[in-house]
Write a structure and sequence with these properties.
about 375 residues; two-stranded parallel ribbon; 10 helices; ABC/ECF_trnsptr_transmembrane; membrane; transmembrane; about 10% strand; ABC/ECF transporter, transmembrane component; mainly alpha; transmembrane helix; 3 domains; globular; two-stranded antiparallel sheet
Length: about 375
């Protein structure tokens, strides 16, 4: 007769995060024959029999304290990751904001570069001096002109990013300009204490406060500041994009030199400024290409970012930036060597710069000047009639 042998049926208690439980309890469950009825997680006294076959297995359960809270489960995850950032950079348009697009030839390609520079100056000044309706009219005009002039793959990318930036700036300035009221204490007592009648309210329906949502409020001052800043941001970026995509660097240098010639009589180094501008317009294209190509090289290696620690991810980004600067400096050295081979010795006055010989169309120039005069007149009339 065999003596009863007490047996313990344990389970294994693990958590998904090793830091949440430093001392996990490991138990074992004996799986006996189906006819044997043994309560789970209890002691049992069974006769020891060699014919009874059983297997030992580990059962893993999860602690209730490891479950995330409801608000944590509702939060979106992996919105900003290293892989998404590099893929967005690598998938950016191959025609950046300073890239000249030679084809298809459009109306702006045949306009004189000096008229384009005058347009750029007017589009910078008008948003600050025109009415709010005129500002939104300028945005609509530039958006339609971009859709008409630029190829679809270019204006979809650039117009969307500039509109998003301007929209964020409009909301931040519009809702934050007067959201914090100033504490102002009047030096004179109220009219009721002096025996005077109160100031009558306006009958014209004027209201300084336009919209209120909790602590945020949109006032007339906030609307004016937000519309001016958003319109100025949109016009600067989009007009520069239109001008640079339809004008070669040589044409821009020629137009700027024509405007700066009178400054040479007062000692301004016009030749050095024009040469610097020409080199900058040529060099910025290389910077855009290097940023995109190096990011494409990292993405093509298919790095498993989930297995990298935080410092390893930061190290990859530092390597990415270091490689960009190394390639840029190599390009700068090659440009310097090319200029030395062509006879440049540091004096811009002795170095001849050959500008583009492409002539502009007279009809396009006349239409551009008339449109510019009409835009200025409309802005002046809106300032007097709508204010």
């Amino acid at each position: 007769m065999y003596n009863p042998l007490p047996q313990i049926h344990p389970t294994a208690n693990f958590t998904p995060h090793s830091l949440s439980s430093h001392n996990p309890h490991i138990f074992f469950i004996h799986q006996f024959h189906q006819n044997l009825k043994i309560p789970k997680y209890s002691y049992s006294s069974l006769p020891y029999n060699r014919k009874t076959l059983f297997k030992t297995r580990i059962k893993c359960t999860e602690n209730s304290d490891s479950n995330p809270a409801k608000w944590e489960r509702l939060l979106p995850k992996n919105i900003i990751s290293a892989d998404k950032i590099l893929r967005s950079i690598a998938g950016a348009t191959s025609s950046p904001i300073c890239q000249f697009i030679s084809s298809p030839t459009t109306f702006l390609h045949t306009v004189d570069p000096r008229i384009k520079l005058a347009w750029l100056l007017v589009l910078v000044v008008l948003p600050a001096r025109s009415h709010i309706y005129m500002r939104f009219g300028l945005i609509t005009f530039l958006a339609l002109l971009s859709v008409w002039i630029q190829p679809r793959q270019v204006w979809v990318d650039q117009l969307g990013r500039v509109a998003l930036l301007s929209g964020i700036l409009f909301l931040m300035l519009g809702l934050g300009a007067d959201s914090m009221p100033m504490v102002v204490q009047s030096r004179t007592p109220p009219p009721s204490m002096m025996g005077l009648s109160a100031i009558p309210s306006s009958f014209a329906g004027y209201s300084y406060l336009l919209f209120k949502l909790g602590p945020l409020q949109l006032t007339r001052k906030g609307l004016s500041v937000a519309s001016t800043s958003a319109c100025l941001t949109f016009t600067i970026f989009q007009s520069a994009s239109l001008c640079l995509s339809t004008t070669t660097p040589e044409q821009l240098a020629f137009g700027l030199e024509w405007f700066m010639k009178p400054l040479a009589y007062v000692g301004v180094p016009v030749a050095e400024v024009i040469l610097t501008l020409l080199l900058s317009l040529r060099f910025i294209n290389l910077v855009f290409d290097e940023v995109r190509i190096v990011a494409l090289g990292i993405v093509s290696r298919r790095i498993n970012w989930q297995q990298l620690a935080t410092m390893e991810t930061v190290e990859v980004f530092f390597t990415y930036i270091r490689r960009i600067f190394k390639n840029i400096f190599n390009h700068a050295e090659q440009i310097t060597q090319a200029m030395n081979v062509r006879g440049f010795r540091g004096d811009s006055k002795l170095h001849k710069i050959y500008f583009s010989s492409t002539s502009s169309a007279a009809v396009a120039n006349v239409i551009s000047i008339m449109t510019l005069v009409g835009l200025i007149s409309a802005a002046v009339l809106s300032e007097y009639m709508l204010s």
